[in-house]
């Protein structure tokens, strides 16, 4: 299939803002693997996944396949749901530094004083080489948002598929980002004494905006712009999760207090280096944590309590743990989860931290995140334990389709493995 | 005129190098007494920790030079490896450690670290890694910036790192001298300096120097970078010649005028003399190709290209020129010169018979370099490059030791070498493997099973979570 056709086909798969599974897709049975369903069905040690119309039809014990399916032998392999990038800027950046426009970094603009109005749904480019590089490693979707801005909020992120499509957005305005750690403080008054008052003020203005005619004919003398205040209303109502970066225990306590102050807030803690120290409080207040389990150094004075056991301790206290904070190498979230497991997190929690937990916190769990009947058939056949650094995604399925497992990186590899030394390298076309 | 002088200088340099080549202490002293220059003004005060003899048995051993011994044994005594094999003698009073189910390897050596010069916490006050005041600053020495209380050292130790090279950053064409240390931080930097390790110099290709100096008087292009290296080498050659002439006349009993000293040129001339090893930050294949020609033009040796994202494109040329590549397993894309990173870089360099090294350049990465090697090993295998685990371990110990000029002392499990050894909980090519016990010069300096014994830096003392499982 040529590239154009592939792209056209793929773009026809995802229409609008929904994961519409392809109704023309073939029925596939993947047979004999160890299957992490990441659902109440748990692990099926030798089972079969039935895919119909691009969705999971059934996951069954054993290897007996009903007729009408193309079978793929996966004995000795491991199957998981497609992994999800939890905190990325995928689709918003190609090369981070000194390489032209990077949509993951916003600069001040008149539309916004506090950053809440910014919205990445318009900035996504799924032709980015990062997308295939990431998906062939078993990641089929991602939450993506701004990586930096000098403003209080880091705007509204999106939830995207990593399929080849011109319309990657599965959920626009999927979450709002806020950073109350040292780096957020440095850009917002230089002290938490300024930052937190600005946060409270922003939410108070959003509350006011709910019953105010928000149009240009009206006076609006708030800290926020009208666009900011409008953007914060669904956050205030708990319809849009608020992802808050905080590391030190004292900051996390403030985040919990914020949730008490504005009781409908749906807060997700991110980074959370010292989250383990307030694990019980987080559990009690139903606040999940997105973290990098390898963060074990006091990178700043708000990360003194860093430990490799952060994920394990949070899980033990009943906190929902999510793993994966990176962009170019979000694919290494499997290794991060493996290191969390090496330091006390149960293996099943490590898999959940890459799948269902992410789907749940972003409200996508009716579609993805586990292998259950009716869900979109985003899944991966692994050579072995996906959290082992020596194992790999052998075949990825997206919306029931067996995807092309190549990327720009595999092409570069193959070119130089097969290089014809008698001709300039450009003539070796892998 | 210049050429004649250069040739003369080179000839003299060669003869001087021959005299001091075997670098025994006596000859070093003699040279010092002739020129009056102390070549080692910050000598190591490292002291190994005393230990009873230690025998580890029933263990799977990777000797670091391609050998694997199942159910093997090792004897560590008086700071050195006395014997490795299927069976070793058990001296009286020796501590016996049962290695059943565990793996034993040489200690990991990271030849690219900024611990201490960019320590944790990352504050401006302690950000001492880049002298970004001029593109040529070979006069600065990383050891004068290192803060031994960086908690990163203890974290790296828990990851099995026994030695490391600490380098200045990559902002400059010539960033200054690096230093190789034992991973046993103490009160002063001299306390951790690896005894008798040669010095290195940090150089940098490509984007960083031109980004930093483009608006500060240059260089602002890659061609400006290369002109900068060449100009500096020309000055170094002249300096080398002056001092060689001075030395020769002194030795002949004359009373020549003493040339004036220049710290920058001291270091550059040290490279031309072959005393200081070049560690060059270089990503792109074409940049590396250019630098190998500059190396030939000025008759010095590049020991290792660091980061070497595109080493796989020119692995044959790297082998031909005998230059090592220190690489990440899979970092890529953070700048243009890192855009062509591939996961098979390390095994492809190895397969071309070039010297491959796994390095960190990171206070987190340094804690699990075994996993970085494991990824590269597995990715190579899947691409049809079948390397044994025993051979792949060269990336972590033997090859970095060679690149630092300390392979005669450490980097493999061979009798007589420093007893720098790691006992792993399981196959260290697994995510779940932990360094259970780490030995430096024959002493157990990290024991995972005994939290009371874990070292804690001054910085972490009295802070929250002091002594926690980090």
Which structural class should the secondary elements of chain B be placed in? alpha/beta
Tell me, what's the shape of chain B? Answer: globular
Unreliable spans of chain A: 1-18
| Strand-residue proportion of chain B | 15-25%
Gyration radius of chain B, rounded: 22 Å
How large is the radius of gyration of chain A? Answer: 22 Å
Number of strands of chain A: 16
Structural class of chain A: alpha/beta
Return the average pLDDT of chain B rounded to an integer. 94
Q: Could you please describe the fold and organization of this structure?
A:
The complex is a heterodimer of chains A (430) and B (470). Chain A has twelve helices and 16 strands. Chain A is an alpha/beta fold and 430 residues long. In chain A, a hairpin with a 2-residue loop joins strand 2 and strand 3. Mean pLDDT of chain A is 94; it is low at 1-18. In chain B, helix 5 packs across helix 6 and helix 5 (222-251) packs parallel to helix 7. The longest helix of chain B has 30 residues, at 222-251. Chain B has 470 residues and is α/β, with parallel strands linked by helices. In chain B, strands 1, 2, 3, 4, 5, 14, 15 and 16 form an eight-stranded mixed beta sheet that branches. The model of chain B is unreliable at 1-31 (pLDDT under 50). Chain B has helices at 2-20, 25-35, 152-158, 207-213, 222-251, 263-272, 285-297, 315-320, 345-351, 369-382, 389-392, 398-404, and strands spanning 54-62, 68-77, 80-85, 95-98, 103-106, 108-113, 161-166, 174-182, 200-204, 277-282, 302-307, 324-327, 356-358, 421-424, 435-440, 443-447. Chain B starts with a helix and ends in a 23-residue tail after the last strand. At the A-B interface, helix 9 and helix 12 of A face helix 10 of B.
